[in-house]
Design brief:
This protein has 288 residues and is of the alpha/beta class. It is built from ten helices and eleven strands. The chain has a single domain, classed as Rossmann fold (3-Layer(aba) Sandwich), CATH 3.40.50. Helices cover 35% and strands 22% of the residues. The chain starts with 14 loop residues before the first helix and ends in a 15-residue tail after the last helix.
Length: 288
Amino acid sequence: MEGDINVVTAKPEDVKLMRKLSKIKHTFVVMSGKGGVGKSTVTVNLAVGLAMRGFEVGILDADIHGPNIPKMLKVEDVELTADDNGIYPAFIPPHLKVMSMAFLSPDRDQPIIWRGPMKMGAIRKFIEDVYWGELDYLVVDLPPGTGDEPLTIAQLIPNADGSIIVTTPQDVALLDSRKTVVFSEGLHLPVVGIVENMSGLVCPHCDKEIDLFKTGGGEKAAKELEVPFLGRVPIDPDVVNTGDEGVPIVAANPDSPAAKAFDAIIEKVIEFSNRKDVPRPQKRTPKK
């Protein structure tokens, strides 16, 4: 994305936004067709894994109604500060920054009851009014579905590198993930690939794999839709426990099967970001 932002030709109201985006080399959005598939878990492990490799990384938690990222990184009690540079995001040394609606709500139990325009305005401010500095990667965690928030991100960051689609192996989740792939392509946003989360459970007693939620569905969907398959992340109680404790599995237990699966996915994302002239997909012809 770096070098594609033209501040000179931007509309006056977009100059500030364009200047912020010009300092971000790569932007990836993490999407899911439905909730409960582990999208935020993928986001934090992807971002932390990139930061562990020495990249400067930001997480934009664009889930206005369910902002879970600060909890999963143990920064939910951070009080943000601001000056002439803008709002400073929460900083996790040495390379990770986080911005979320969770930092701005005085009561964690109070729901955000907003219509589309207010959510769109908040997401815009999370980009143009936040002092991100120079970033190698901005990872955007979107709420499930194909509504206001992903449309807003596509509008605000038209040169985003691509989308990462998270699904579980069940047929009902795959139905929605397939729609998300088509949605992304309809926005001319390249699909980096599909992640099959919660894919198989390794028995702690016999070490055999149990297909608790089936396996292989995400890979099959990727093949049928002709998009890359990024990998399978197995069910592991430590993924849940480390997430609740604020230290994602890639940092808490890097030798675990789940962490190794995330590492392989991260390497594919880095490889994708190093590609030149990735074509913008065209809208698919609807099936009859």
